[in-house]
Amino acid sequence: MGISLGIVGLPNVGKSTLFNALTSGHAAVSNYPFCTIDPNVAVVNVPDPRLEDYRAFMHSPKSIPATIEFWDIAGLAKNAHKGEGLGNQFLSHIRKVDAILHVVRCFSDPNIVHVDGRVDPVRDIEAINVELILADLAGVEKKLQGAKSSVKTGEKKKVMEHDFYEKMKNHLGAGHPARTLALEYPEEEVFLRDLTLLTVKPVLYVANTAEIPEEQYVSAVKEAAQKEGAGLIVIPARLDVDLKELSPEEQVEYLKALEGEAFAGLPELIQASYKLLGLITFFTANEKEAHAWAIKQGTAAKEAAGKVHTDFEKGFISAEALRHADLPKCKNHAEARDKGILHLEGKGSQVVDGDLVYFHFNL
Hints:
Blueprint: E1 3-8, H1 15-23, E2 40-45, H2 49-58, E3 63-64, E4 67-72, H3 87-95, E5 99-106, H4 121-150, H5 156-173, H6 186-195, E6 203-209, H7 215-227, E7 231-235, H8 237-244, H9 248-257, H10 266-277, E8 279-285, E9 290-296, H11 301-308, H12 310-314, E10 316-322, H13 333-338, E11 342-345, E12 356-361
Parallel strand pairs: 1-4, 1-5, 3-9, 5-6, 6-7
Antiparallel strand pairs: 2-4, 8-9, 10-11, 10-12
Helix pairs in contact: 1-8, 4-5
């Protein structure tokens, strides 16, 4: 399975509309809070033209793209961290995803109710962040209580653990998400993972705009994202849904009427999500299929082999990599080897984005 992204935000900001725009799904979209209680989940193929290039190169009969899961999570309400508004259930859904798509309402429409009566992107962002931070703070305080008794032993690791929880508590208490806390020691990375915090997850802000973006709202979200080092993408979700209901010719005319406004869609959002998570794509191909795989940038060849099959990693010997840019220089794998354009990769070699990789292993 590919990466998972949780679509979150206040009620009635366009989360389910965005979900439908990205997945061509049919999630319920209604003008009242908590329309979505159980998360709608859709698995979407990651568009990448390089996959078809490698399929044709290897004459594979089929191709299998990388995938991404979108979770349409219900709107968070004030005091969700206390369980109000089904808060505990919603927060548990967020805990399961790899990254957060925080949808922020950036459009004015008197026909769509806003839970706080008026559009204010900064206030909305802070409302969600406060709930996530308070939920994390409650968990850290419990850990800290347990650590206070064990620290009396004087064991170095126990003392470091206690001090880390104390530092995290103060950081969250000051209103900062966990992902912005600078870690000083390798042990702190372990302590952080054990906490399973919500605010440690990477965030991509999605400014949900009208057909013609209202710049004051978009600028406010951009500034907020920059302050916390988060990503930002602008999508008029309702427009994207409407366009999919039109013919290609009608889409062209519609967009012309909007004076050529540039809008982001699924490919751009996935690209931004990959960047946020530090992901790249490598490919495998044979006489049966061509396959795209998403991995963390900097992944070693041996570890990447395990992504394809655990046996490949266990018996890894080496790997041969063909750069996508070198594809026109050869007609097949044998010719690529004869011309010396295959790159031999050892266990510690890092996989390069876009490479077609052949793994050699021995069981």
